[in-house]
Amino acid sequence: MAEVRNKQVVLKDYVSGFPKESDMHIIEGTVILKLPEASSEVLLIKNLYLSCDPYMRILMTQGASSYIPGSASHSPLTGYGVGRVLESGHPDYKKGDLVWGITKWEEYSLVSSDQTLFKIEHTDVPLSYYTGILGMPGMTAYVGFFELCSPKKGEKVFVSAASGAVGQLVGQFAKLAGCYVVGSAGSKEKVDLLKNKLGFDEAFNYKEESDLNAALKRCFPEGIDIYFENVGGKTLDAVLLNMRLHGRISVCGMISQYNLTQPEGVTNLANMIFKRIRMQGFMVSDSYNLYPKFLEFLLPHIREGKVVYVEDIAEGLENGPAALVGLYSGLNFGKQVLLVSRE
Ligand SMILES: NC(=O)c1ccc[n+]([C@@H]2O[C@H](COP(=O)([O-])OP(=O)(O)OC[C@H]3O[C@@H](n4cnc5c(N)ncnc54)[C@H](OP(=O)(O)O)[C@@H]3O)[C@@H](O)[C@H]2O)c1
């Protein structure tokens, strides 16, 4: 029975305010490569890729109510990842299968039967895609845009955090649906990416706009039909002033608020009445039953090069804390992935 090193990224203590690399440390434990007997843990997996996701900050706060098992302090972080099954006590999985779903930030993880897990059936695309375009963020863009907003040809769509894991897909889905789409992002390089590679009709750097309302009026002289909300705060307030009659707002995330001890207020909500706006929050995990339909829709587009995906891949668990913390200052250029092992 082999005992091997199990490097882990562990949360030192619960975080308040902006997370720092020093809130986490790397420890080198060991693991016996065998499933424990009489346990709810039914799979032993080797983690290959881990996903850096904004919601992980919420799990770092003491007492946070969470939609996946939380990252308790002094424990390895919990998050999405891609792994290879080393041992299985579950009838649906066998040794050698590739899977994506909830795992831990470590080299080897035990997975219990109630954790979100999908078998990877299509390996003609990069495996890392199952942390992004073909994993949780891809499903988020699909559900939040198509299911919640019911886009129609010719409609005007705005996406914030548009170059990120979710936003870059929302923009491309909007173009597939025949919409006009504008994205906001935090640097010139990201704005260029949106316009020149990802097919957005227009894009702007929100950090360089002194008046977000004016920026939106410039890009949407007739107003916005659909807003895909990733950031919250001042952006949401400015969007509310620019929505059209019967507009839809898909509330996916509010990254500008996650590290604030006092969240910002929104002052323009009355526009929801006058413009008959429907604003709806959602959690992607409620819609995982749509995963087969989503794959059927997206895989052909990826294979034909009609939808592309930009990834930012950091290498090695020791670089995980920097990669994760970088999300909150926009250091990632596309989907932030952490490569743990190539095989
Ligand atoms: N509801 C769900 O089920 C669900 C699922 C997945 C994700 N989400 C949410 O979707 C949003 C996007 O997630 P993602 O994975 O695609 O992340 P991401 O866009 O790949 O990375 C986060 C980006 O947010 C931007 N950002 C950071 N701080 C900001 C601030 N104060 N104001 C404005 N922008 C800021 C940065 O881009 P810039 O350089 O452009 O500022 C950063 O690159 C997040 O809010 C996340 O929590 C929700």
From TrEMBL:
<dbReference type="Pfam" id="PF00107">
    <property type="entry name" value="ADH_zinc_N"/>
</dbReference>
<dbReference type="GO" id="GO:0032440">
    <property type="term" value="F:2-alkenal reductase [NAD(P)H] activity"/>
</dbReference>
<dbReference type="InterPro" id="IPR013149">
    <property type="entry name" value="ADH-like_C"/>
</dbReference>
<dbReference type="Pfam" id="PF16884">
    <property type="entry name" value="ADH_N_2"/>
</dbReference>
<keyword id="KW-0560">Oxidoreductase</keyword>
<dbReference type="InterPro" id="IPR036291">
    <property type="entry name" value="NAD(P)-bd_dom_sf"/>
</dbReference>
<dbReference type="InterPro" id="IPR020843">
    <property type="entry name" value="ER"/>
</dbReference>
<protein>
    <recommendedName>
        <fullName>Enoyl reductase (ER) domain-containing protein</fullName>
    </recommendedName>
</protein>
<feature type="domain" description="Enoyl reductase (ER)">
    <location>
        <begin position="20"/>
        <end position="338"/>
    </location>
</feature>
<dbReference type="InterPro" id="IPR041694">
    <property type="entry name" value="ADH_N_2"/>
</dbReference>
<dbReference type="InterPro" id="IPR011032">
    <property type="entry name" value="GroES-like_sf"/>
</dbReference>
<dbReference type="InterPro" id="IPR045010">
    <property type="entry name" value="MDR_fam"/>
</dbReference>
